[in-house]
């Protein structure tokens, strides 16, 4: 086992990895930007090093700085978390060059899955079902028109190097196709440095179902069951649950076997996720994420497998904790991503100072967070405040528990997505599990009307709560008074 691991990330995922390290008796090392000098993760780590300016390119994306810190502090491995460098092949190559273990797959494997076109070719070769469409980048408009006609409208235009839905455009007729290609190429070049785009059949109202993969360096590959991630906005996940409400033992065997085949065919090691879209009884490979996922806690809840500890163990050379037959799903788990965003203003980011904070608790409730009272959420990074995860014996019990946990969650000072999640947990279509990736758009009016009522009720609650959260100056004054009193008391005792 490693003695020291550097976490090349920030926020809640950095703390999550540090917790796993602590349970494994491994020292954790944080790297932080100037904007994160007062962050919780930097204080929680055994060691912490400043790596510069807030801009990601000068801090969390600066591979040379991170490698330099790892060498100087004697870290034997680097855990990239998710986002930032988590799927950067060069980080893997640099780690190998400097004798540092990357807690993840090799750079060559990351590269093979980084291109949507190349990954699709590899999956076709492995016998994994893929969405009908192009097997190479579009080289001309005429070729695009011909391809769209052959597979039939609607089609979707995607960036080959893309992710997170960035630049994707759905096209319903030929007149829209040229504009969609030009727009996607422009966004792709700006966001990913690669303007290559491709076309595939657009599957209407699909469910987004993914399978967690674990693979060690001894040739063992298993799936750790499924997750449903269909509640999204602009292709960004908002709510995830495990297992998928539509999952049967037969379907899990089929999709899980395809996911294992996909990972094994590219020599995958460590934790990863194979994502599928599902519609009308058919499933198709979407992409593979070569890292730990944001939503991994729901899998941990229903299977009892600590995925991050498994990542560290696998990277240190150990075999998997269990075989496929030992993976069993118990109960139901739901995760709500709590972001500093205004859900009534198209989810616009809302960074700022948290003036009141109280997280929920009780049976079956977990909060993965990197914030605290009076913490200022910086504007430079992802807007996530925390992940609220609950477990219940059934899906209905999990929904009821999430409602209760959301009602307990208090975050003052910034707008958050709490009203959205409260609305969703009372939405009859969500409760009936009639899910697809366009759910939020389809039910937008009902969700927003319900959110307005929630916001009004929350404001009334906030007014009652404000007196319980002392302003920072008063806290300092009270703290100072208590300290002075204790010092005086101790001095009097010493005199006696």
From TrEMBL:
It catalyses: hydrogencarbonate + pyruvate + ATP = oxaloacetate + ADP + phosphate + H(+). It is an enzyme of class 6 (ligase). GO terms for biological process: gluconeogenesis. Pathway: Carbohydrate biosynthesis; gluconeogenesis. Its cofactor is Co(2+); Mn(2+). One of its GO terms (molecular function) is ATP binding. Its EC number is 6.4.1.1. Residues 1-445 form the Biotin carboxylation domain. Keywords: ATP-binding, Gluconeogenesis, Ligase, Magnesium, Metal-binding, Nucleotide-binding, Pyruvate. It comes from the Archaea. InterPro entries: ACC_Biotin_Carboxylase, Acetyl_CoA_COase_biotin_COase, ATP-grasp, BC-like_N, Biotin_carboxylation_dom, Biotin_COase_C, CPAse_ATP-bd, PreATP-grasp_dom_sf. Residues 120-316 form the ATP-grasp domain. PROSITE patterns: ATP_GRASP, BC, CPSASE_1, CPSASE_2. Heterooctamer of four A and four B subunits. Pyruvate carboxylase catalyzes a 2-step reaction, involving the ATP-dependent carboxylation of the covalently attached biotin in the first step and the transfer of the carboxyl group to pyruvate in the second. This is Pyruvate carboxylase subunit A. It comes from Methanobacterium congolense. The lineage of its organism: Archaea, Methanobacteriati, Methanobacteriota, Methanomada group, Methanobacteria. The gene is pycA.
